Structure formats: C-alpha cells, structure tokens
Sequence to fold (340 residues):
Amino acid sequence: MKIRSKCPLRLGIAGGGTDVSPYCDIHNGAILNATINLYAYTFLENINNDKVIFEAEDICKYDSVSIKGEVNLDGSLILHRAVYKRVMEQFNGGEYLSLRITTYCDAPPGSGLGSSSAIVVSMLEAYRQLFSLPLGEYDLAKLAYDIERSDCSLAGGKQDQYAATFGGFNFMEFSDNNSVIVNPLRIRRHIINEFEASTILFFTGASRESANIINDQINSLSKGGSSLDAMHAIKQSAYELKAALLRGDVHEMALGLKASWEAKKATSESVSNPSIEIIEDAIFKAGATSMKVSGAGGGGFIMIFVQPELKRAVSRVLELLDGQVVDFNFTSGGVMSWTI
Fold:
C-alpha cells in the first residue's frame, strides 16, 4: 500500500508576526493569508527491513533509523523524525512501523511561504490516512504546531500550519492559551482574478533562517516602544486589508500593503537588507505600487502589487535582477491524501 498527500503553501498578505508568542498571548494577533498552487508532498509506503527511512528529495537529504531502538531527534531530518515519533507513540501504542517516508516541496526552506510547516502537515495527513485517524482540520494543524514548537523547539508562529491544513483565503485570529480561530473568506471569482492580475511573486534566490529574525523581533518587542507600536500597526493592517479584499478594492489593498511593509521593517533590522532595497528601488521606478517580503523577512519570496497594465514592465525589470518571477494562482483547497 502506498499513500500520497499534498498541501498548499501560503502567501502571507497581512498581519505576519502577530501570530508569534508572546505578542499574540498578550495583545491578540490577526493574519490574512491565502494558499497558492505551490505544494508540499509526502509519499509513504510500507517496507520490511526493520528500519524507517526518511528522504527529502528537494533538499537531497536522507536519514534512516532502526525501529528496534528508540527513535530520537538527532538526525539530519528532525521534522521527519519528530512527526514519525509523535504519531507512532501517540496513535500506534508506541509500536514503530517499518516505513519509507519521502517528501518534496515546490519551494525551498526559508522561502517565506511556510514550506517547513507545510511539509509537517503533509506528513501528518499521510499518517492520518494510514491509520484512519479521527483528526479534524483544527486537530491536524494544532498537532503540527505542537511538533514544530514543542517537540523540535523551533521558533515561529501559528499561521502556517492552519493555512496548509485549511487552504483558501483565511482571516485568522490568535490569542492566549494557543487559541486559534480560522475564518474562511468567500471571495468572489472576479476579485480573485483582479488580485492575481495585480500581483507578482518574485523569488529572490536567497533563503533565510526565519527563527533568527523571529527571535530578534521577540527581543525588540520585549522592550516595547516603537517595535511594539509597529506590531500593532501590522495587526491593524490585517483588518484593513481583509475589508478591502472583501469589497474587491485591490488598489486599496496595495496601499495598505505599503504601510504594512514599512511597519514590518520597524520590528527588526533583519527584515530588510541591501539586496531587498535594490529590488524595492527597481520595481518602484518601473511602476509598482507596493511590496512586502513574505514570511519573517530577510529574503525568500516577495509579493509585489502593480497595476495589471504595468505588470509586464515590472516583470522585465525583475528579470534583470538575481532571482525569478514565479507564476502562481490562488487555491481553494487545503491538505489532501489518497491511497494507491
């Protein structure tokens, strides 16, 4: 028996960073995001050699563990090990099964599209299918979050796991005690068409370690002052861009994104850098309205708003820089799995 699963990556539109503790525990957080047609995949199959084998094809990493001993988290693929260990111990009575788990992601780690969490969600979905686990969407996303943040002690927020699980356009609210409310948004097709026509997704070619930026933001927030005010402004932008999106006012979204990006840069000196500033200067000279770096910042993917009539002109400028313009569409579905 073989099991396949896939889940979409997400584009953070507004509110990024307000889903990270301790900010969301004290002030509540809000995020607007949407999934796109870039995916994380998991392929799971039974084998018979007293081992569990992990393969991450996109980053060319391989790991194996004997199922006759304790499975620890010391290998090169910590997320793969952690998901396997948690599932076997929580849902299979501690009995380790001999399996091959292969993963692949359409975007590299550190891309700002939530790829690491999407890999975790896709793996959990494959195991859910294998064991017919009674896990709903909130259960699956919360389990993925617990594995990343508690089992692996990786810094980060809460939105990625829920975006990958639910899919589509979502407005998410975060509060203390790890409370998360996902509000799916029903966006009319012509609004989505205009949004896509007005957006360029550009991969800078430079991945970054989001945990370092997040820790820097947490340290800045603990001091209060301008960094905390900037985070409040970022949260407010999530409400404003949600309202503009529902109205179909993409131009108003573009203006709101510009203010949100300026606020985000004020949370940490690591959010932007000279390479990003070169891109920013080039696209604005070519006619772009606004931009923001997806995820924690520092590199990865950049979302650019531009009037559709100027999209090709801005794209031509980007093609002269290091990086790649990536075609995309918004998607409505979340994680899914099937057996062959």
Summary: The two ends are 6 Å apart (CA to CA).
